[in-house]
Design brief:
The chain has about 400 residues and is of the alpha+beta class. About 55% of the residues lie in helices and about 15% in strands. It is globular, with a radius of gyration of 21 Å. It binds coenzyme a persulfide.
Length: about 400
Amino acid sequence: MTKVNYFLTEEQQMIVELTRQIAEEKIIPVRAELDETEEFPWGIMKDLAQADLFGLYIPEEYGGLGGGCFENCLAVEQLAYGCIAITTTFAASALGGYPILLFGTDEQKAKYLPDIAAGKRLVAFGLTEAEAGSDAAGIRTAAIDEGDHWVINGTKQWITSGGEAEIYTIIAMTDRSKGARGATAFIVEKGDEGFSFGKKERKMGLRASSTRELVFNDCRIPKDRILGRRGQGFIIAMRTLDLARPGIGAIGVGLAQAALDEAVRYARQRIQFGQPIISFQAIQHMLADMATQTEASRALVYAIAKTIDAGAKNFSKLSAMAKLFPTDIAMKVTTDAVQILGGYGYMKDYPVEKMMRDAKILQIYEGTNQIQRNVIGQALNKEYANKQ
Ligand code: COS
């Protein structure tokens, strides 16, 4: 049967094959256990480091592979076929690294990117706080300029790889009176004075990924840890999210594909009323929708990621679309997969119950899907205003 041809280069095809192999050989065998124990997937992070995958999006001069958003999407899609908790741990490293890549000075890039690319040090991104989720400009963590250093106070919440990562790119207020324009980005390192880790969350899904508070208690960091300019922090966060969101869409594609494969396999071998349930039109139509929606999601993510890599400017709307559609589809397809497996689907003996639990986070993190719709809606409003 002909598959959609996305005309991947030889190098891109290699990334797909390598990450699929890691998903099948390393991730799938341990995913249920890590989901149960909530253990951080260090072993797999080492495998990904050995395969040079942490450097996928980092330029060659800093030891990376020089890929773009598209290559990153190809990799996380295949890893997500195995487990999205483990993939999120990997993807969070790009989210944390993008601010340095996009806004770091030459010195900062030279200092941090080679270790990040080699997978020697994990990096995490800290924006969210207890009172500032969707309303990202509402953060309260504050950084004060004290001459030769900065002093940071506040708490970041739900930070992926919190406690495990060694480098953190965080956003803090340097002038609250200026709202979004009063935020500034900083690099904080594990071990910095006054920087510690708080509550580790217990979650519905995504259990092999660590989600933890970052606590800044008179945390002192050197002056040169500022990222970009003072007051540029909100823009840095938004530009980072714009670049990262297609990756979340790609994780949704990988997860939907995994759930679809499980559902088709099961429907072909499950006998009821004397025949495999796939011979019933009710099941066939569900599978047909699941397959079509998964392929449509893939095509959307790939097209938008390539558009971004081709040098698009102001791609927030596209990036939001690339996150929104595939993640809503991943939720639907995993739910339908559980339905097709019926009672077995609800049991932990089959992987689809974990897939459905995991899928929910995709509609929430890196900006809820309601926020993605806002971003798209506001962009449409602007576009059409300019046309008149
Ligand atoms: N790229 C560059 N600049 C951007 C931007 C983007 N994608 N989005 C907004 N900005 C700029 C605006 O142009 C504006 O600049 P000016 O002050 O110069 O006009 C400034 O940032 C503030 O923008 P806006 O008024 O739209 O900000 P809001 O407070 O209304 O927030 C949303 C906008 C809701 C889109 C933002 O808060 C958001 O993305 N929230 C979700 C956060 C999120 O994803 N959290 C997940 C946790 S991180 S894993």
